[in-house]
Design a protein that fits this description.
β1, α3 and β2 form a beta-alpha-beta unit. With 267 residues, this protein is α/β, with parallel strands linked by helices. The strands form two sheets. The protein has a seven-stranded mixed β-sheet with strand order 3-2-1-4-5-9-8, sandwiched between helices. It contains eleven helices and nine strands. The relative contact order is 0.16. It has one domain (3-265): Vaccinia Virus protein VP39 (Rossmann fold, 3-Layer(aba) Sandwich), CATH 3.40.50.150. It binds S-adenosylmethionine. S-adenosylmethionine binds at residues 4, 7, 11, 53-56, 59-60, 75-77, 80, 103-105, 121-124, 127-128.
Length: 267
């Protein structure tokens, strides 16, 4: 199976249970950081054309549509799109969101300079097999001066995975290439994932014709290592305060699990 089919296969299989696996304090913190950043950069004009590529079950498309915009939600997984569509039906948002099955590396469904704002959250760029092509495609479908917010998997934040298992040879390979596998219980679904250093991802955006406006980490502190703190609901606000005081701290960016980049198309 080609990697892109493996990705779609995996996400089709988990599409009905996907949302449930993101309902805990860690992901609430992560999502709050995402929404706070997204809200700041959405275009002022509610008639702006917005694309959510790799939009999955519609978490962000739905939030954006609820604030008044129309959103195109695109994804390589039919299953994820079907789940998103059911949620939109339940929320009476079908007039605000359209659904397109497509690959971020080949968005021929969309013409050049079609969108005022593009988001790609989670890690579609990391999972797509050809991040450079994905970023060039995002650039192509955006209008000049439009903004994009994308998040990717962070290389140095993933080192713990190899260290915890004592896999030093694999760690060396990973640090050299940035490539690893998505670990799923079904062997035939394992696809390659690219992890980036903050500098590498910035360079790819600059090379594609963007100006990088900001870069932040989500989350900067490895909170999942401290489940007792996370599970104490009385501490959530304080945890948010600490995390958000650090999330643009350049010296800590390498330790985040995801890197989020805000960029503007030149021209
Ligand atoms: C971790 S999920 C994130 C979903 C959503 N953006 C969110 O933040 O909730 C990654 C999504 O990227 C999609 N994806 C992965 N590779 C893709 C590709 N080549 N083209 C389009 N979507 C892709 C997956 O199907 C999945 O829905």
């Amino acid at each position: 199976m080609k990697d892109k089919h493996k990705v779609a296969h995996f996400y089709n299989r988990v599409s009905k249970i996907y949302d449930a696996s993101y309902q805990n304090a860690y992901w609430r913190l992560y999502q709050k950081a995402t929404w706070d950043n997204l809200r700041k950069h959405l275009p002022r004009d509610l008639s702006s054309q917005i694309l959510d590529i790799g939009g999955g079950t519609g978490l962000w498309a739905i939030k954006i549509a609820k604030t008044g915009y129309c959103v195109v939600l695109a994804d390589i997984s039919r299953g994820m799109l079907d789940t998103a569509q059911k949620k939109c039906e339940a929320e009476r948002l079908l007039q605000k969101i359209s659904f397109v099955e497509c690959d971020i590396c080949d968005m021929k469904a969309f013409g050049d300079a079609s969108f005022d704002f593009v988001l790609s959250q989670g890690d579609p760029i990391s999972c797509c097999g050809n991040p450079r092509k994905a970023i060039q495609e995002i650039h192509r479908v955006m209008k000049p001066q439009a903004k994009t917010i994308c998040s990717v998997d962070n290389k140095f934040g993933a080192m713990h995975y190899f260290l915890d298992q004592g896999k030093l040879d694999e760690l060396e390979h990973f640090l050299r290439t940035g490539w690893s596998h998505w670990l799923t219980e079904q062997q035939e679904e394992q696809f390659d994932v690219k992890f980036f250093s903050p500098q590498e991802i910035q360079n790819l955006f600059i090379e594609a014709g963007f100006t990088v406006l900001s870069i932040m980490g989500k989350t900067m502190i490895p909170w999942r290592r401290y489940p007792k703190l996370l599970e104490d609901t009385n501490l959530f606000d304080q945890i948010c305060k600490i995390e958000f005081s650090l999330n643009q701290e350049a010296s800590l960016l390498g330790s985040a699990s995801h890197i989020e980049i805000v960029a503007q198309k030149n021209g």
